[in-house]
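Table S2 (text version). Query chain:
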Amino acid sequence: MKGDEIMAIFGKSYDHFLGYALSGGGAKGFAHLGALKVLEECGLKPDVIAGTSAGALAGVFYADGYHPDEIVELFREKEFREFVELTIPTTGFFKSAGLHNFLKKNLRATRFEELQIPFYVVTTDWNRASTVVFSNGDDLVEAVVASCSVPIVFHPQMIHDVPYVDGGLLKNFPVSVIRKKCKYVIGVNVSLILPPPEKHNIRRMLERTFNLMSNSNTLIDKAYCDILIETEGIEKYSIFDLQNQLKIMEAGYYYAALTMSKDESWEVAKKCHRHYALTKKIREQLNWVRGRNEPERPEKPNIQ
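Corresponding C-alpha cell output:
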C-alpha cells in the first residue's frame, strides 16, 4: 500500500507525511549527504524529495535507494573534468556529457516511476524564464543534468527541443514545490552567502554572482520549513571543488545533528515516528483482512 493511500485512509488533505527539500550549491551539495545520514540515524525516511541542482544530484541517488556513504563513494577520486567536455563557447564553456554518462551508468532507475521515493527535479526553462519541475516519465537523467547546468558554464540541456538550465536560477531551495503536498518538510540549505573573493577572476566573479542570485530566491522557502538545516563553514569551497568531499559531508553531518538535537526538531521527529508506527499497524491489519477474504484456491485435480 502506497503512502498516498495511507493518507487517504487518515482522511488527510496532503499526499505525503514527510518531505525533504534539498538546495543547490555545487560541490557544497556533499553536505546533503551528511544531513541525510543524520536524518536516517534519527529514524526518519522521506515520503517525497525535491531537489535543485546539487540537491537534485544528491536526491536522485537517495531516491534510487543509495545510502549517503554509497553516494559519496561514487564521487570519490573523481575530478571536475570527468563530468564535462570542453567545447566552443557558444551557449556555455562545457557540455555535461560526462555527468549524463555518470548518471546513466550508476542509477538503477531509468525513469521517475522506478525510483524508490517520489522525486521532483527543479529546472529553469531558459526560453520562458520560468521554473519547471520534472517528476514523471523517461527524462530522469536529462532533468537532473538540466538542474545542474549552471548558465554560461554549461550548455543548456535540451529536453524535447526546449533548453533547460540550473533550477537555482529561480528556485534554489525547492521547499514550496512540495510544501502543500506534505504534513512536514525538512529543508537542507547548503548555499549560504559567499564572502567577497580575495582575488578576482572570472570563475570567482561568476560563482559569487550566481550565489547572490540564487540566495535571493530562498528567503520565502526557508520560512516554509518545519525543520531548517543550514550548513555553515563551507562557503570557502568552490562549487566545482571535488577534492574536499568528505570535509563538506562532515560539516553537513555536524550541522544536521546540531539542528536535530533541538527540542522543536525532535518534536517533529517524534510525530513522524508515531505516524510510522500507526501506518505499519494499518498495513498489517489490512493485509490480515485481505488474507481472510481471499477465496481458497481449489486443489488441482489429479487426472490419471
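Notes on Table S2: The longest helix spans residues 263-293. The first strand starts at residue 16 and ends at 22.
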